[in-house]
Design goal:
This protein is of the alpha+beta class and 500 residues long. The protein is built from eleven helices and 25 strands. The strands form five sheets. The chain has a seven-stranded mixed beta sheet with strand order 19-20-21-18-23-24-25, with helices on one face. Strands 2, 4, 5, 8, 14 and 15 form a six-stranded mixed beta sheet that branches. A six-stranded antiparallel beta sheet has the order 11-12-10-9-13-22, with no helix packed on it. The longest helix has 21 residues.
Length: 500
């Protein structure tokens, strides 16, 4: 299973780096260009058509690259009507790429292409995962009376020292700490992020420089925008028509299938879900009335708890004296019978000091949920796994998947929602520990694992790329609000009109 998943996310092979590699021979966004290609059949572009953009990568000497593997993101947007849609990037593996966009709105559509990492940087990131999976490490404190010791912990540790084995008996999730002198393994009381070991060659560091080759825009060789014309009813199908729905209309086999797009700042889903705008306290309360909402995951899911807590004055958080990073949190609206919880996932987790009694694996938590028609489960887990081999994340998701399947079998009315990964702003440190490239691999694995399970997705990846606000590990409030609207639309597909 793991091998099949790894094959499904295989990245185009990048060239190995020689010891005498020069930055001048690597991908340079300033010399690279993108070109808007003319529409199929000539004429103009219409709503429902597709736009194709050719991207050509050059090195710092202005010479064309001959191999692929660069990491690019593409967006089409209209800043005047707050519209945006993510593009699909296809690697031709010869130094050129295609970005394909759906055209869901009329008027101005401006292309943006970003070089996130050069192919040479991807080589370094792959090597780091293989050779330095423990570059983020963790600590645990042990206490017995007045005696306190702290040791290093991780998924894998050097077995030449005595270890405490904290592998979860139910899920098989491994976790180890070095055994403290004079203390039992049972004396462990806290978990915390330990630190980061950076071990790069000077030349390798130059592959991740802000403003040079780290998340830098690629210029257009000509016009960077088009005008999209209104289309005849022939092209429409349920408010939006994909061009491949009309027989014979598309000769180009490359097809963009976006999850949705923004229009007037509001997310419009293209998977058949009608996304409603829950803009009032009354509308949110009405949707969540008599509901239990359990949020499990990392800080990007904690944002959702914080958003609901802030948006609903009658939703009162009960102070559990827990860390604001890790939780757990509980909030209750007694009048509307709304119950919302948040709990962080089990290790690896890079938060501050956490009692080990609060380290719960999501799969185990799901097995304790009764479930039913009024229960909503939201899961978001990805950011804290990026320094580890992909097999670690696959094992975690497969355990969660099994627990979700068990839950849906005993309580079929339970609604399970999965939040995907999202891109973020990058520094050298963020790149080495949490690069968008790592996040993209995990995002693809998550979608593949839950593809045939009765769950709903909130596509945080495309919702972040398509939006005009900058990428952030914790997306800005307008993006979070749109994510919450998608979640509420899953819960209440036919809300009461008078509440909007």
């Amino acid at each position: 299973m793991a091998d099949l998943l790894k094959d499904s996310i295989a990245w185009p092979k990048t060239l190995s780096l020689s010891s005498y590699l020069s930055l001048n021979h690597t991908s340079d966004p300033a010399h690279s260009t993108f070109t808007i290609l003319p529409p199929n059949g000539g004429g103009g572009w219409y709503v429902g058509d597709q736009l194709e953009v050719l991207i050509e990568i050059y090195d710092f000497h202005g010479r064309p690259k001959k191999s692929g593997g660069d990491f690019l993101l593409a967006r089409l947007h209209n800043p005047y009507i707050y519209a945006g849609v993510a593009g699909q990037v296809l690697d031709h593996r010869n130094g050129s790429y295609s970005a394909i966009f759906s055209l869901p709105w009329e008027g101005l559509a401006q292309v943006e292409v970003i070089l996130v990492h050069p192919s040479e940087g991807i080589t370094v990131l792959e090597k780091l995962t293989q050779e330095q999976p423990g570059r983020i490490f963790f600590r645990s404190s042990f206490r017995w009376g007045s005696l306190i010791k702290t040791t290093i912990c991780n998924i894998c540790l050097n077995a030449t020292q005595r270890l405490c084995n904290y592998t979860d008996l139910n899920t098989g999730e491994p976790w180890f700490c070095y055994k403290p002198n004079k203390l039992s393994c049972d004396a462990r009381i806290t978990h915390s992020r330990g630190g980061f070991i950076q071990n790069l060659q000077p030349m390798e560091e130059k592959l991740f420089e802000n403003g040079v080759n780290l998340k830098v825009p690629i210029p257009a060789s000509g016009p960077a925008h088009i005008q999209v014309l209104n289309q005849m009813d022939y092209f429409y199908k349920s408010a939006f028509n994909f061009p491949w729905d009309a027989p014979g209309e598309m000769s180009n086999p490359i097809r963009s299938r976006p999850a949705g797009y923004y229009y007037q700042g509001a997310w419009q889903s293209l998977d058949g879900t009608q996304v409603h705008q829950f803009n009032t306290i009354t509308s949110i309360n009405q949707c969540l009335k008599n509901k239990v909402v359990h949020l499990y995951g990392d800080s990007t899911i904690r944002q959702w708890f914080e958003h609901l807590n802030k948006s609903l004055p009658d939703l009162k958080e009960f102070d559990l004296q827990s860390s604001r990073q890790t939780g757990p949190f509980i909030a209750l609206d007694y009048a509307n019978n709304i119950y919302v919880t948040f709990r962080c996932h089990g290790p690896p987790i890079r938060f501050g000091t956490t009692p080990v009694s609060q380290l719960h694996y999501i799969a185990n938590e799901l097995d304790r949920v009764v479930g039913g028609n009024n229960t909503v489960i939201v899961i978001g887990i990805w950011s804290h796994f990026s320094t580890f081999p992909i097999e670690v994340y696959i094992r975690r998701l497969l355990n969660i998947r099994k627990a979700v399947v068990r839950l849906l079998k005993r309580a079929p009315g339970t609604l399970v929602i999965i939040r995907t990964a999202n891109p973020k702003s990058l520094t050298l440190y963020e790149t080495l520990t949490n690069s968008d490239w790592y996040s993209l691999q995990y995002d693809r694995v998550l979608r593949a694992i839950f593809k045939r399970v009765k769950v709903k997705l909130v596509d945080a990846w495309e919702m972040s790329i398509a939006h005009h606000l900058p990428h952030s590990l914790h997306p800005e409030p307008p993006i979070v609000k749109n994510m919450i609207d998608v979640m509420l639309s899953y819960i209440c597909p036919s809300p009461t009109p008078e509440n909007f």
